[in-house]
Write a structure and sequence with these properties.
This protein is an alpha/beta fold. It has two domains: about 5-280, TIM Barrel (Alpha-Beta Barrel); about 290-370, no CATH class. The protein is built from 15 helices and eleven strands. The strands form two sheets. An eight-stranded parallel β-barrel has the order 3-4-5-6-7-9-10-11, surrounded by six helices. The chain has a two-stranded antiparallel sheet with strand order 1-2. α2 (about 30-45) crosses α11 (about 270-280) and α12 runs antiparallel to α13 (about 315-330). The structure holds flavin mononucleotide (FMN). Flavin mononucleotide binds near residues 27, 65 and 260.
Length: about 400
């Protein structure tokens, strides 16, 4: 791959340079242990790139969403979860907001207390308990409140950084195409977001009604890229599971970068594959044997336990939280019974003992790599507040 292409793929966002890669925020999944692991794997597998010393950062690895109200209200349990690892040089926090004043207060606190280096705004969550209170994807259908929230966040970060423009945290917005096929409003959302100061837009190219089902409509991403000013970054999201998908999506849409969600569940090394591509041009696929996958999984578990314990919770709580990762790691391997044992385990030792029964020499099930993982349920009714 020519060097020019790779250089042109380095993005500038908020006074920093990045590879064009994003870990798409996922509640319960993209918390500190997972992000730390993704960065460790980039360092382990990339031949010419190092997350700690290279000026260009490895990408934007976004924490799971946090309620602005909880940050603003200084709810200690919530703040204790929104932590970052020592190897995260750019700390991205995602806020979900339902009210402009809370949003502004939360942004002010994040900026003034230096809780993060970037705020991403969640306008895409389709879950009932979020949308029925006017948050997540409901906001695209209420342009005045959407504008007020982004405006509040921008003011909050400016005031929190004493209007020092070099230090002001960049803000970004993540949204869907619309509520359903009859209410498609992503271009309006984008226009408002840009007018109010978002420097980066991530489009999950589905409607809220689709939830995670059906196919993401990448043509909407292309339309967004063709519509918003060039200096605003557009990240593509939806059904980008592998490096090949990422390359194809960027080629088809012209997006500046790719945001990977479910594709990295059980495959956190996908970011190493992307980083290697964007720094050397090499399209290598890691495809670790089961032995290596189990090592990565156990490291993920170890990081989860120390993170959960640091919040004052037990090993059992960590093991329970970790369970959702076991299926994705073992997907496609001959590991059915061991997986069941692991899912019932209540200690790390039990998971470790179960892993010892596996035939660790199994090759990576390549055919499954590009199949959807995580949630892909059917369409759902979107609940909006009354008179929305
Ligand atoms: C379990 C789960 C949790 C999610 N949580 C969030 C979240 O907190 N914030 C958000 O903006 N999107 C969230 N998403 C959406 C993803 O970030 C992403 O937009 C979506 O999964 C589509 O991308 P993908 O096809 O790469 O998975 C979540 C998705 C899943 C599957």
């Amino acid at each position: 791959m020519p060097v020019e292409l790779i250089e042109s793929r380095t993005l500038r966002f908020g006074h920093r340079h990045f590879l064009p890669i994003m870990l798409s925020p996922m509640a319960g999944i993209t918390s500190q242990p997972f992000r730390q692991l993704c960065l460790e794997l980039i360092d382990e597998y990339c031949t010419q790139y190092d997350t700690q010393s290279t000026e260009t950062l490895a990408g934007i690895f976004v924490d799971e969403m946090v309620a602005a109200r909880a940050i603003a209200g200084k709810i200690s349990k919530v703040r204790a979860k929104a932590t970052f690892a020592h190897n995260e040089r750019f700390r991205s926090l995602q806020l979900h907001c339902t009210d402009a004043l809370w949003a502004q207060t939360a942004a002010f606190q994040i900026a003034s207390e230096r809780l993060a280096d970037h705020i991403d705004l969640n306008f895409g969550c389709p879950v009932k308990k979020v949308t029925k209170n006017g948050g997540g994807s409901a906001l695209g259908a209420n342009p005045d409140l959407l504008r007020a929230i982004i405006h509040g966040v921008k003011r909050g970060v400016e005031e929190g950084c004493d209007n020092n423009s070099e230090a002001v945290l960049p803000i970004s917005a993540k949204f869907r195409i619309g509520i359903d096929d009859d209410d498609v409003h992503f271009l309006r959302t984008a226009e408002i977001a840009v007018e109010e100061g978002c420097e980066l837009l991530t489009l999950h190219a589905r409607t809220a009604q689709q939830f995670y089902s059906g196919k993401a409509d990448w043509s909407a991403i292309k339309l967004l890229r063709d519509t918003v000013p060039k200096e605003v970054l557009v990240f593509a999201n939806g059904d980008i599971l592998t490096l090949e998908d990422a390359i194809r999506c960027v080629r088809e849409t012209g997006a500046n970068g790719v945001a990977i969600g479910r594709g990295c569940m059980g495959r956190p090394w996908v970011f190493a594959e992307l980083s290697e591509y964007y720094t050397t041009g090499s399209t290598f696929a890691l495809r670790p044997k089961l032995k290596e996958v189990v090592e990565i999984m156990m490291r993920h578990l170890e990081l989860t336990v120390s993170w959960v314990k640091a919040q004052g919770n037990s090993e059992l709580a960590a093991v329970k939280l970790f369970r959702q990762n076991i299926g994705p790691y073992l997907k496609g391997f001959n590991a059915k019974e061991v997986k069941m044992q692991m899912l019932k385990a209540v200690t790390v030792l039990e998971i470790d003992q179960a892993a010892r029964q596996l035939d660790l020499e199994q090759d990576y099930p390549t055919a499954l790599e590009s199949l959807a993982r995580g949630r892909s349920r059917s369409q759902k009714k979107v609940f909006l507040p009354p008179k929305w």
